[in-house]
């Protein structure tokens, strides 16, 4: 169609139209052979796929053992990149505020003094809590420290001792 004359028209709600050929008529099935989809409506000659309703469920392979049953069940956790995350129990700095000056503080000593409750994780990380850190000159032992927690402890005259994640031995002073 020649659309060169359309460029001069100013469009408003009373004269806009869809482009020619963009609206296709609905296919009326089962309305005679001259309509194109008569008689069997494009479903062929009988059979399961010509019947009403969804022919078979997803994953059905005609009676052959389907793929999802041929493969072994997925058990355990996947390994490899992206599945190596260590989950730490978090010790907040404001939980250390009640410790005496010059004392050595770790999760076990905090548990004995009822400052913290028991944890289901065996490795512990010291993080900054909600309140300010006020303890002076304490030696904190943990498996990991955040950068800001380490700065706060050392800024108050304390020491951070890293522990081995497997043996719990002190790695560095």
What can you see in these coordinates?
This protein is of the alpha/beta class and about 170 residues long. The chain has a domain at about 90-170: Ribosomal Protein L15, Chain: K, domain 2. The chain has three helices and seven strands; from the N terminus they run αββαβββαββ. It has helices spanning about 65-70, 105-110, 145-155; strands at about 90, 105, 125, 140, 145, 160-165, 170. The chain has a four-stranded mixed beta sheet. Strands 1-3-5 form a three-stranded parallel beta sheet. The longest helix is centred in the last third of the chain and has 9 residues, at about 145-155. The radius of gyration is 36 Å and the shape is elongated. It starts with about 70 loop residues before the first helix and ends with a strand.
- In which order are the strands of the major sheet placed? 2-4-6-7
The ordered H/E elements are HEEHEEEHEE
Average predicted confidence as pLDDT: 87
Could you give the distance between the termini? 84 Å
Proportion of residues in helical segments: 10-25%
What is the top-level CATH class of the domain at 89-171?
A: Alpha Beta
Tell me the number of helical segments per DSSP (H or I, 4 or more residues long).
3
Q: In percent terms, what proportion of residues is strand?
A: 5-15%
Shape: elongated
Main β-sheet description: 4 strands, mixed
CATH architecture of the domain at 89-171: Ribosomal Protein L15, Chain: K, domain 2
Unreliable residue runs = none
Number of strands: 7
User: What Rg, in angstroms, do the CA atoms define?
Assistant: 36 Å
Broad structural category: alpha/beta
CATH topology of the domain at 89-171: Ribosomal Protein L15, Chain: K, domain 2
């Amino acid at each position: 169609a020649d659309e060169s004359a359309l460029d001069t028209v100013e469009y408003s709600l009373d004269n806009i139209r869809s482009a020619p050929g963009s609206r296709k008529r609905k296919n009326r099935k089962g309305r005679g052979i001259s309509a194109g989809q008569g008689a069997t409506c494009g479903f062929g000659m009988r059979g399961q796929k010509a019947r009403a309703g969804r022919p078979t469920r997803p994953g059905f392979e005609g009676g052959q053992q389907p793929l999802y049953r041929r493969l072994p069940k997925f058990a355990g956790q996947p390994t490899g990149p992206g599945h190596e995350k260590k989950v730490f129990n978090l010790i907040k700095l404001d939980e250390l505020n009640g410790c005496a000056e010059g004392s050595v503080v770790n999760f076990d000593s905090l548990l004995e003094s009822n400052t913290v409750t028991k944890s289901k994780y065996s490795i512990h990380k010291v993080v900054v809590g909600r309140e300010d850190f006020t303890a002076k000159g304490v030696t904190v032992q943990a498996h990991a420290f955040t950068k800001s927690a380490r700065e706060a402890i050392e800024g108050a005259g304390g020491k951070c001792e890293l522990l081995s994640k497997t043996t719990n031995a002190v790695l560095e002073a």
